[in-house]
Design brief:
The protein has 14 helices and ten strands. By secondary structure, the protein is of the alpha/beta class. The strands form two sheets. Strands 7-6-5-8-9-10 form a six-stranded parallel β-sheet, with helices on both faces. It folds into two domains: 124 residues, no CATH class; 166 residues, Glycogen Phosphorylase B (Rossmann fold, 3-Layer(aba) Sandwich), CATH 3.40.50.
Amino acid sequence: MIVAAYFRRILSLLHLRIFSNKYDVILVEKEFFPYLPFCFERLLTGSNLRYVVDFDDAIFHNYDKHPSAIIRGILSKKIPHVVKNSCHVICGNRYLESMFVKFRAKQVTVIPSVIDNELYPQFPVVKVKVKTIGWIGSPSTFKYIKPLLPLLSDFCCSNSLHLLIVGSGCNYPLMKNVIWSDWSQGKELELLGRMDIGLMPLFDGPFELGKCGYKLIQYMAAGVIPIASPVGANLDIIDQGATGFFASSPHDWINAIKEILSMTVPERSLLINNGVNQVSKKYSIISREALLFDVLFSNRIDD
């Protein structure tokens, strides 16, 4: 299946090259062919094609930080080549921007992750009592919440709370007061609506610096109070004490949860409304669509 998909993509690239006069710009998400050299993306260069490349992860570290010396030797310069030959780079946070400047990108514009906030309630219901702490992610990001599970399970048991884990993709041993749920697009908003507190732990590593905090934005839009590691874009998204909280050590995570539990309903309501307003102003599609249009269809972006 992968070989067939790569073959279809090569045909698409050849089509773009042959009929380049039909397209104003090509928008590329990260790269065309993961774990293959730049020679394929090179098909986009040397013609009239203008391509803009978009990054919401530090995928270049998949190559330059890879444990295999062979992968590092062959592919560590791939993303710099992709970036240098593009007409513009869109990225989701300041760390990515700094790296793409080093890669000699012609132009770089930071456009943070956004959500369609019309799908979320404009006035989230503030529950009288906090009942559910949640985490939503994927099998690849489960590693971030996994070390905290025993501590969180014990805390939930002692405080009559539930821990809702969504999208872990694994059959983890049963734990008290922990609810496991598969993720699906159709269920996502309903699952977020069951949460009162949303967790986003991260390791403090180079790949994590490139993450763009999409789940934090979802939490805030859904009226879920976020607690996150102070890493990467999380530092820009959360206003400590006003829209959410930061936590580093296991002790910090429990203290942040306790602080939310101690709040009155009006205090939590203020925190939630601050988060909803911030998403609307900075992290919604409508707040960034004009900038995206300018990047795609202008040769130059002015601050």
